[in-house]
Design brief:
The chain is an alpha/beta fold and 456 residues long. The chain is built from 15 helices and 21 strands. The strands form 5 sheets. A 7-stranded mixed sheet has the order 8-7-17-18-19-16-20. The protein has a 5-stranded parallel sheet with strand order 10-2-1-14-21. A 4-stranded mixed sheet has the order 13-12-11-15, with no helix packed on it. β17 and β18 form a beta hairpin. It binds flavin-adenine dinucleotide.
């Protein structure tokens, strides 16, 4: 039996690893000239790596932790000691009312906004999140209504206090890299529940941001790929998948590959760009499926200088570009301040020339952390323009998407099986979801096609 795997992200590599362990002949076809997909490292100083893509994990990410243990990769705790900085300006304030120079230091991570208003916001989010059928969101009671309303409309209707209205888009940007107008309420609620609930997702200590992978998350994919050896082929963008009675032919720019089954481990919008014969019964995305909007910025300093100021490096700002920052410094290495530009702000920032992106980010960091000198290094990773990712952290399902596409996301199409974090109802959008999807797809393919024969 031979299985072809499209995409050498964490989902595809996990699926291929599982199949190889079962003795299945496997071939991974990857469009880029590197493995890892949305897990990507940049070397910011000699042997010091920063995560341009996925970074954080928590103790509930059990499959990821198991895979790390098995590949000898360690978790390092995310540094979060010292005061936080907040520069939060109410949307109705005039430009002269406040700027980032009004940033305030606050002990802990709770923003200096009305505790009652934020408590009510979280209660409202809990209420809508609690009702979601996480295993099958389209079967949620009231799914039609929740799937036809955007999170922006929900906020307009439900959030009265200006502090809640200010904080909600920042929260959604940080959690999902989403602008509220881009996601349905059903998707927002599903995403929060799938990831362990909004408190778990939002937390560093004890939550989903508790630690990072030492040396960079991309290393996990590199280790898996190294073990698979020449079973992984780079620079092979898959253009077409054709099935017949005996097997499947996968066509890339470089040639054709034959197998008994194929696992497609790419985001839904990219799967829809592949030509399938016979055609898929329904598309995997729609014109309302939006790319996750995140640009990651890294400011490199000789050491984590903010720590000397008694600051954790964590900040939240209502004005961009850096809507939040976090200390991602490697232990004992250079200082890495990561800036997250998300939602609508990411769409704007992504279009700026690099010099303007740098100037805006450096100026804001200096206002947030007074006395912080010019960085010695600066990196921008714009995921919106990555042709083989089309946004991140994950696809954003807009109105109608869950009801139309949801039931078919994991349903095999003859010899075609589906993986990728967007096909996992557990930890959707996260590395953990990618691994779980790869495991499921590998088991399915091995079960459904033990030998060659007609599957259509
Ligand atoms: C900035 C950012 C921050 C994130 N933060 C976190 C975090 O802190 N924690 C967390 O758990 N997750 C985070 N994520 C999400 C995480 O990276 C993803 O959930 C996970 O990596 C998805 O893996 P995947 O294999 O499903 O998809 P991908 O990584 O997208 O892999 C798909 C692969 O398919 C390839 N491909 C696409 N089209 C084709 C084609 N036609 N032919 C061949 N190959 C193709 C792509 O090049 C890619 O390598 C973040 C992502 C980003 C970008």
């Amino acid at each position: 039996m031979k299985v072809l795997v499209v995409g050498a992200g964490l989902a595809g590599l996990t699926a291929a690893t599982d199949l190889a362990a079962r003795g299945v002949d496997v071939q991974v076809l990857e469009a880029r000239d590197r493995v890892g997909g949305r897990m990507h490292g940049i070397e910011v100083a000699q042997d010091d790596w920063a995560d341009a893509g996925a970074a954080y994990l928590g103790e509930r990410h059990t499959e990821l932790l198991a895979l790390m243990a098995e590949t000898d990769l360690k978790a390092v705790p995310t540094a979060m000691e010292g005061a936080s900085r907040f520069a939060l300006t109410a949307p109705d304030a005039t430009a002269s009312d406040a700027t980032a120079s009004d940033a305030r230091s606050v002990p802990g991570r709770f923003p200096p906004l009305s505790g009652v208003a934020l408590g009510e916001l979280f209660d409202l989010l809990d209420e809508v999140t609690r009702t979601v059928r996480v295993d099958a969101p389209w079967l949620t009671p009231d799914a039609e209504r929740l799937d036809s309303t955007t999170a922006a409309e929900w906020a307009e209707e439900n959030l009265r206090h200006p502090d809640a209205r200010l904080f909600f888009p920042l929260f959604l940007g940080e959690m999902m890299a989403a602008a509220p107008a881009d996601v349905s309420v059903l998707h927002m609620a599903f995403y929060l529940r799938s990831g362990g609930g909004l408190r778990y997702l939002n937390a560093f200590a004890g939550g989903a941001q508790e630690s990072r992978i030492d040396g960079g998350a991309h290393r996990l994919c590199e280790v898996l790929a190294a073990r698979l050896g020449d079973r992984v082929r780079l620079g092979e963008p898959v253009l077409a998948v054709e099935q017949d009675g005996d097997g499947v032919t996968v066509r890339t720019a470089g040639g054709a590959h034959r197998g008994d089954a194929v696992i497609i481990a790419v985001p839904p919008v990219l799967a829809d760009r592949i030509g399938f014969r016979p055609a898929l019964p329904e598309p995997r995305s729609s014109d309302r499926t939006a790319p996750g909007c995140a640009v990651k910025v890294h400011l490199i300093h000789p050491s984590p200088l903010w720590r000397e100021m008694g600051l954790s490096g964590w900040s939240v700002s209502s004005d961009g570009p850096l809507l939040s920052t976090v200390d991602d410094s490697p232990p004992g290495g250079v200082g890495v301040l990561t800036g997250f530009v998300t939602g609508e702000e990411a769409k704007r920032y992504a279009t700026l020339p690099l010099a303007e992106q740098r100037a805006a980010a450096v100026a804001q960091a200096a206002l947030l952390f007074p006395g912080l000198p010019e960085p010695i290094g600066f990196h921008v990773t714009n995921w919106l323009d990555e042709p083989y990712s089309r946004g991140c952290y994950a696809a954003l399902f807009g109105p109608g998407d869950w009801i139309a596409q949801g039931p078919g996301l994991t349903r095999p199409h003859g010899r075609v099986h589906w993986a990728g974090t967007e096909t996992s109802t557990e930890f959707f959008g996260l590395m953990e979801g990618a691994i779980r999807s790869g495991r499921r797809a590998a088991a399915e393919a091995a079960h459904d096609h033990p030998t060659s024969g007609s599957a259509l």
